[in-house]
Design a protein that fits this description.
40 residues; mainly alpha
Length: 40
């Protein structure tokens, strides 16, 4: 089973991240270098 994101899903993720980077106030800034495999 292939659990990778499709190209469409990857595009959506980029779009959401770009939107958040543009629209969130600075005090709500988030780390964009987070990788899915990182452990919280």
């Amino acid at each position: 089973m292939d659990l990778r994101f499709t190209p469409e899903q990857e595009a959506w993720r980029r779009e959401v991240r770009d939107f958040l980077a543009r629209e969130l106030p600075e005090k709500y800034e988030f780390a964009t270098d987070f990788e899915e495999r990182d452990v919280l």
